[in-house]
Amino acid sequence: MTRQDPIKHFFIWPAVLIVLVISIFPLIYSLTTSFMSLRLVPPIPARFVGFGNYTELLQNPRFWRVTWTTTIIAVTSVMLQYIIGFAVALALNRRVPGEGLFRVSFLLPMLVAPVAVALIARQLLNPTMGPLNEVMTFFGFPNLPFLTQTYWAIGAITAVEVWQWTPFVILMLLAGLQTLPDDVYEAAALENASPWQQFIGITFPMMMPISAAVVFIRLIESYKIIDTVFVMTGGGPGISTETLTLFAYQEGFKKFNLGYTSALSFLFLIVITVIGLIYLAVLKPYLEKHR
């Protein structure tokens, strides 16, 4: 069969239509539901309310609080993932002894289910019986409220996210480092450029495109965090560690307020889209410069 053979459409279009129906129908249905007042428990007949759900959400202080909390966790964790991941990737790119063992070891956290990681972290950071606090008590220090005070809880969630997803950053940046041309570094060495000067003048600018992509992917994924928060703190204390996806879960699967939850999901999509557009707009001049 050649590329011009019409028979190819017989095989391609059914698959394309199935994928479109599976992906577009739920999206359209969810968008339609977001303009309705629809609750399953207690069952209330669907009623068109226009932008009522969106207006109610935007006037709800809880929505803005969970958006701010999600932003803090996402931005902080991704920033640390990038810094640590870049440092480790640079070290592995130097062909350190035991490089193969380090590569496997660093990738292991990424292969563990987030729920399992969160369960282990919750046990380790337990305010009363956790091993970490037992060590603190043994040395005469007071128990630290890792999961019961707002700032400690946000820090604990961020640390778990960094531990689990830094391997992804390492993997991607290491792949990018290994594609950089050696002749540029050889020329820099002839000019007696120090390792720091080579990093600032060569490595970092040339890694800008892949760095932007990695940070963007991790930022979007971090905004969708729910499993780690749900297991470790359940959004507490109070709602101080509640994220946007956990807020949507509470409204949709506990209160069965489908119209409100659909509106929340699309506002969540708008928030992520705006953040992504701002991120790309800020980086665009630098990406074009180092293309």
Concise structural overview:
This protein starts with 7 loop residues before the first helix and ends with a helix.
Keywords:
two-stranded antiparallel ribbon, mainly alpha, MetI-like_sf, cell membrane, MetI-like fold, single chain, 291 residues, globular
SSE topology string? HEEHHHHHHHHHHHH
Main sheet characteristics: 2 strands, antiparallel
Spans where pLDDT lies below 50 across 5 or more residues = none
Mean pLDDT: 86
Beta strands, count: 2
CATH topology value: MetI-like fold
**Overall CATH architecture:** Orthogonal Bundle
> What's the helical proportion of residues?
over 70%
The gross shape turns out to be globular
Radius of gyration: 24 Å
Alpha-beta classification: mainly alpha
Q: Could you state the CATH homologous superfamily?
A: MetI-like
Which CATH class is shown?
Mainly Alpha
